[in-house]
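Subject — a protein and its fold

Tokens — whole-number codes for backbone shape
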Amino acid sequence: MLDLKIEGARVALPGGLQEAAVGVEGGQIVAVEALLGAAKRTVDARGLLLLPGVVDPHVHFSEPGRGHWEGWAHGSRAAAAGGVTTVVEMPLNAIPATVDVDALRLKVAAASAGSRVDYALWGGLMDDNRAELPGLHAAGVCGFKAFMLEIDDGSFRYAPDHVLYSGMGTLAGLGARLAVHAENSALIHGLSRDLRARGRHDPAAWLEAHPPVSELEPVQRALLFARDTGCALHLVHLSLPESLAAAAAARAAGQDVTTEVCAHHLTLTDGDFLRLGAVAKCAPPLRDPGRVEGLWAAVQAGTVDCLASDHSPAPSADKAGDDIWRAWGGINGIQLTLPLLLDEGVHRGVDVARLSRLLSGNPARLAGLGDRKGRVAPGFDADLVLVHPDAPWTLRADHLHSRHPWSPFLGRRFSHRVETVWRRGERLVEGGDLVPGVAGGLWQRPGQPAGTPIA
């Protein structure tokens, strides 16, 4: 007898949405068929969408060291409420940053103590931890992250060109992928100094300090470095269709390059930033409506590989005030990524199965978890999300499970609503509400069984 049977839903399968029954035993999907036998629990999902749990490849939970910014307990609650069953957490914002094996052990301990959802972990490449890269790779990180933009974080310094280039050479030898935040440091910091010297601290100044070329040039430079070293490259949070076109051209020429676009860059514009101010501050910034349309065209054309949140919250006070330079630059987004992109994507005619691949299947493969996560198929973990496609609701602050419930999307009306979420067959969300007392998220190491510790 099956542990769980979900029947009547339209299921996101490789061929598109199809009505099917899904059977679960022992935390895994064992059957996807028109009809299934008896089960201990049967869910009637007629009228609903059944999707694989979202695999978010770009989140910052900031623990250890900055748990007061978010932390694994709050961040994973927000993830689960939004249909995210696996996160791939970034090395920075935590103290210490995940730039050596000792720091990785601390990150795993924090995650295992607090996370409701499963997790994989990025390691960091910075100035200068190149000697640590082989150890981190062997210990189980799914890839590495580097900043081409100098950031104000003493625990995670940016990678100047020589570190980036030589680090790529090391990672190529390890067979590891490098995720790059591609913004031109000298240009942005120089423009910022000029603007501040003129007394500018308004939101428009932030946009002027981050012109489109400040992203496109380092994207092209990272592609050149990766081509010369043979390093697999992942370009995070691209905000320009021109950047996606450059990556697509490199891939057509034989490079191993993947791309990521975030929900906020697809659903907000620079006009929204000027209206909302610091709550919508991010880097790279929100772009003009024409470029937002270009990003959606790239989604439709297949030149975007992954959709992500870049969830990066901070205390509400760090988003307050009228000085745009002092405000924290990040978006509180993980709980809203799925409903945002379903609403906007369906409105634009994007196939739900395509959105699901970009939100689940492709990010799982990026993280080295494509053998177990991201698909509704026999042998895969029963990470599943039931979504009501027509259940209108309006976002209030008390809906958010992040430690600091601010969002540029407060007051937005949604059509899609997350109803039920299972992680490896265990319910995390029921009727739109979190199931109390559920923990047990496991570290997902590429090539290792879930929960395998560091040797």
Remarks:
- The chain has two domains: 2-50+380-396+409-434, 54-366.
